[in-house]
Amino acid sequence: MNIGHLEHDLFLLMLNLAQLKSPERILTIFLEALNRAQSELVLQWEEKPQHPASGIEIATTHHSFGWIMMAGAEAAQPTELLSLIRNAVQMLAIILENRAQAEWLTEEQLHLEALVAERTAELRVANEQLQKEIEERRQAEIALRRSESLMRQVTDLLPAYVAYVDAESLQYRFINNLYERNFQRTSDQIIGHTVQEVIGASYAAAATYIAKAQAGERVSYENVFQLADGTRWVRVNYIPDFADDGHVQGIIVFNYDITERKQMEEMLHEKTEELDRYFTLSLDLLSIADTEGFFHRLNPEWEKTLGYTLAELEGRRFLDLVHPEDMDATLNTISQLAQQHEILNFENRYRCKDGTYRWIEWRSSPKGNRIYAAARDITARKEAEEQLRRSEARYRQAIELIGAVPYYQDYSLKAYTFMGEGIREMTGYGPEEMTPTLWRSLIQKLVILGKAAGLSRDEAVYRIRHGQIDVWRGDYCISTRTGELRWVTDTAIELIGEDGVSHASLGILQDITWRKQNEEALRESNRRLEETLTELKATQELMVHQERLAAVGQLAAGIAHDFNNILATIVLYTQMSLRVERLSPQLRTRLEVIEQQTNHATQLVQQILDFGRRAVLERHPLSLDEFLEDTVFMLRRTLPENIQITQSTAPGDYLISADPTRIQQTVVNIALNARDAMPNGGKLHLGLSRTPRQEIDCVDCGRVVVEDWIKMMIADTGNGIPPEALSHIFEPFFTTRAPLGHGLGLAQVHGIVKQHGGHIEVQTEVGVGTTFIIYWPPLPKTQPAGEAEKPAVTEREHHETLLIVEDDAVMRSALKEALEMTGYSVLEAANGREALVIHAAHAKKIALVLSDWVMPEMGGQQWLRILSEQQPALKVLILTGHPLAEENRQTAPPNVIGWLLKPPSLDQLAEAIHQALAFPADG
């Protein structure tokens, strides 16, 4: 190897230095060049040692290389080694410039070569160790960078402001993106700066907590900061970072934005206060209880309802207050609540402090073993429902007495929610079996009657369901369970909702097989007689009309009877209250309005009774000609002056047996209808005459023959009655003057006339006028008309003992209080059976019995007959509003001396009692 090799190596080394190659590469080239250079220089020194200059130069270079190798081995950084190599390169360059002069090497140069070789070996080992350390450090730096990147990614994902602060200088060493963004500063503006410089005015509140963290304590506090999103509540956490020797070298900062939580807490606080106010002020019964059966919290309404204080109820076992009959249902409900089922509309009874019970309706929701409930007192509703149930039972009984089967069909449920028991006899199927589908399957033939006659079934059903036809009438030929064919007539009204569509129907079924059979037989025997067949159809329709009016009349009369009981109670309590001294003017005015409205309601009830032909009549011989003159005089003072009233009476006798009040009501109702038909004035004529034998067209009976009857004519020149309305004018609640009229005037006229045995004929023409002709059966003139002579009444003090027998508890209480106010002593019984027991105990001191006629267990007729047998001289006064009262007068026991109609006024009641007590004992 010659000196040219060393030049090549030096050139390669300088080229790598110029290109800034890696230290490891430069070191490798340098070592290789150094080895070759050393070998060549030593060889030259051995060959030419006689050259003094060369020997000294080689020795010096050998020494310098040795020093470089030792320095390279001890170098801690590749950059320092690189500097040494550059120096060596420069030194090599100097040697190469002088190599021509180095011909001989000295012994000292040989010694240097050996030393260089030794150092080269050491340098190689050091170089390998250095290469290893460099690689390890590189891997460590890579791992550190990865760790720092991962830590930053993690902290950037956290919903917190994360930072690391030097514990001694309180300077930031690390922050995440959220910390940087919310303080509106860049990382360079925060890293290396102190906490006080970054958070500003908030540092005063943080200083104490930072000091604790510097002392090694984990601390947490809440404070308000001005951040990028404005003023925010922040939860600050300082976590000390301990070094290996145990001292705190840093503080980890975790800050959480809790503004939303603070706002929610404030909202929750406000909502809690709002719920507490609602809980306290609610008119419902609110409670919190548990499934073990104990109250925990109640609102003040419980005190008003049960009478206990809240202190007595809260913490108490509520099952102790439940009515024994409701205990099983209550325990079952609690079991369902314990299984986390909501309970809606549960009802049971709770004992009040005074020992009475109140009905409570519950809506409860469980959560764990807690029960949150809202309830209300429904005692009044329950009592009303029970009273309604009794009334409905009486109405159903009344309907069933006429052989009808009432039903209620709910279209939404596609079912009969009620069906009378009579359906079993009619079809062979019980009420529980009957469905709309089954009923349609029984129909073999349908005859549509009334307003829907002539329409197809589908068209008729559509019009009725949409309120275009008010009443459904039809005859069905049905096949019973046994296969027998029967005819049934169906009359129903539709219950129209706010949307104008019917949601249910209420109707009555009647077995008319016998009538259909008669009609069929009659048609068969007279099929060749067209006129007779037409008359028969007209008669059939009239019979259906009569039966419908009779059924509605009975139902209306039953309703009127119950209303009489209610009105009687209102009348008595109102009039008793008006007699209290020192009433405020405002309260007295209100009571007088109640009295006036009650009188108006009494008149409406009387109209219903008149229509149903169930009014109790006080008949007397009545001269109709004199009576009509008085009535016309009254009409001239009450009707408008633009209506001219005339009267005519043909010679003759006009004595009838009638109730004057009812006859006057008949004339007045027709006259008022005439007034409404003549809004711009007109003529009203009233006439009396006797009729010869003639055939008339009665609106109720059809063609009938009267002979020598009294004919009363009331004619007007008004608008007349349209043909489509004529057939309905006597139906209750039918009116062409809605909302001014209530449709009871002519219905009352119809009932009064029929109850007196008379007939009505109507002649009308639209635009010309209307004439009502009433035929009254005459009464032979055997005594003068006028009121029957009454026995003399003697004044007496009110100290007698009376026995009141009345099944309605409220009515009985009102009567008792009214009579006691009048000065009488009062005993009371709820029915005839109780009355007999009380009479047996107080027979000697009872002066008069005031009894209802229709009562449960033992009615008036039965118990009064027993009383008459036990004490014939004990006088009885009947107080009733029942429709059958007049008929039962004939079968009443002889000790019944009078009948008082409900509702009596306080004065009427007192006068009737006074007269009854004064009535002769043998009278």
Plain-language structure description:
By secondary structure, the chain is of the alpha+beta class. Helices cover 48% and strands 23% of the residues. The strands form 7 sheets. Strands 12-11-16-15-14-13 form a 6-stranded antiparallel beta sheet, sandwiched between helices. The protein has a 5-stranded antiparallel beta sheet with strand order 2-1-5-4-3, sandwiched between helices. β3 (219-227) and β4 (230-242) form a beta hairpin. α26 packs parallel to α27. The longest helix is centred in the first third of the chain and has 51 residues, at 107-157. It is elongated, with a radius of gyration of 59 Å. The protein starts with a helix and ends in a 5-residue tail after the last helix. Residues 44-58, 69-73, 100-104 and 783-796 have low confidence and may be disordered.
Question: What is the compact description of this entry?
Answer:
By secondary structure, the chain is α+β, with helices and mostly antiparallel strands. Helix content is 48%, strand content 23%.
Write the layout of secondary structure elements.
Layout: H1 3-18, H2 23-47, H3 52-74, H4 78-97, H5 107-157, E1 161-166, E2 172-175, H6 177-182, H7 187-190, H8 195-199, H9 203-214, E3 219-227, E4 230-242, E5 248-257, H10 259-281, E6 285-290, E7 295-298, H11 301-306, H12 310-313, H13 327-338, E8 343-351, E9 357-367, E10 370-377, H14 379-401, E11 404-410, E12 415-419, H15 423-427, H16 436-442, E13 443-449, H17 457-465, E14 471-479, E15 485-496, E16 502-511, H18 513-525, H19 530-578, H20 585-611, E17 620-623, H21 624-638, E18 643-649, E19 655-658, H22 660-677, E20 682-690, E21 694-698, E22 702-706, E23 710-716, H23 723-726, H24 745-755, E24 759-765, E25 769-776, E26 801-805, H25 809-822, E27 825-829, H26 832-842, E28 846-851, H27 860-870, E29 875-880, H28 885-888, E30 896-901, H29 906-918
Parallel strand pairs: 18-20, 26-27, 26-28, 28-29, 29-30
Antiparallel strand pairs: 1-2, 1-5, 3-4, 4-5, 6-7, 6-10, 8-9, 9-10, 11-12, 11-16, 13-14, 14-15, 15-16, 17-19, 20-23, 21-22, 23-25, 24-25
Helix pairs in contact: 1-2, 1-4, 2-3, 2-4, 2-5, 3-4, 3-5, 14-19, 19-20, 19-25, 20-24, 21-22, 22-24, 26-27
